[in-house]
Amino acid sequence: MTGRTLKIAALVVAFAAGMLVSSRLGVVEGQQRKTPGEGFAAVPGGKGGQDVFGPYDPVQNWPRPLGESLPNHENWTYSQATDVFPESQDRVLVTFKGELPVLPGGRGRGTTWLPQIGPSLKFPVGGGVPVREAASATPSFGKAMDESDGRPGVDWRWEHVIMVFDRNGKMIEDWSQWDRIWGRPHDVEISPYDPQKNIWIVDADAHFVSKFTHDGKQRLLTLGTPGVPGTDDTHFSRPTFMAFMDANTWYLADGYDGTRVIKYDMNGKKLLEWGMKGTPPNERRPGYFNSVHGIAVNPKTRRVYTASTWGTTAPSGLPTRARTSCWPTMPTDTSSIHGARSARARDASGGSTALPPTRTAISTRRK
Fold first, then answer.
1. pTM over 0.90
2. Which of 34, 214, 234, 362 is 20 to 30 A from 280 via CA?
3. Residue 127 lies in a domain
């Protein structure tokens, strides 16, 4: 009996040791190169990866409080920042959804029960500091459609939608002369090939793209019909991002409500487009999108990358030997890229694959 007990104990110890070694090997395999800045693949052996925080630390009080740069703004702060473009350390362009009032902090402010919303709910909670969701606190266009949009001038202000900061977070340029044209600026870019460094801004909710001089004083070009959605050559459907392939061409993702990618020259002449409306959530047909949100390019390979939502595939209209492929970029929780789920990638070697809609993917097109 004693010998049998010892054998069982030895087997248990050996099994536990094996599990421990296996666990450690798994950690090493899945998290190689943990030096800050290098990241690691979330799924061992998978393409891509995600290092959520990277080697960076947040810079406190960047940008500086509005009251330090603007008169009569001591009680106001920034609303949602929708995009940022760092031209240099001392010229950082940021787009906002206007301004919000500064919230009072500290304890002793009391709480309010909210039975009209649900049982056992009160606000503020914890230490008495309220929490505000900035994205929905300011309505697009700076226009209140009903009481749910709050009170203009009290709950929010549609001012200073485009601002420029230096490395210390101090405002150095004020583009408020353009405040009234914006619905919700979504992307700001400068072509790396443009010696004049003109500034391009995509407005998702107002359905247009505008090009400005480097100092923001002149509006040089507008594509789309501001305030009017559509899918023809003079309208967009909530466009999101743009990307420059070279000195002569760029691409537009159109968009939140659209299902196409459009190629332009630098004068705004349309060269081509692709994409058709798909059927969520398990779209698998080549050339169909359910939306086109993110876009990027690789000038060396001439590939166009798009990120989309709910079973999206890559574009159609490619040469005969074009193919699609795809790869995951992160686990199921995809909120950080607006819920993108799946897509396809294309090159010139034939064949196709598709990714299940529970994982994120990128689609590409060689052009």
1. no
2. 234
3. yes
What are the respective helix, strand and coil percentages of the chain, to the nearest 5?
15, 30, 55
In this structure, are residues 159 and 179 in contact, taking their beta carbons and an 8 Å threshold? yes
Determine the structural domain holding residue 82 and report its residue range. 62-105+113-180
Q: How many independent structural domains does the chain possess?
A: 1
- Phi and psi at residue 360, in whole multiples of 5°? -85, 150
CB 276 within 8 A of CB 341: no
- pLDDT tens string 252-286: 999 899 999 999 999 999 999 999 888 877 776 77
138/143 Cα distance (integer angstroms) = 9
In 3D space, the residue among 358, 229, 328, 341 whose CA is nearest the CA of residue 293 turns out to be: 341
Residue 78's pLDDT is 94
Query: What is the SS3 assignment for 190?
Result: strand
- The pLDDT of residue 92: 97
Question: Cα–Cα distance between 32 and 28 in angstroms, integer?
Answer: 6
Which residue from 320, 317, 211 is spatially nearest to 266, judged by alpha carbons?
Answer: 211
356 domain-assigned: no
Tell whether 311 is covered by a domain: no
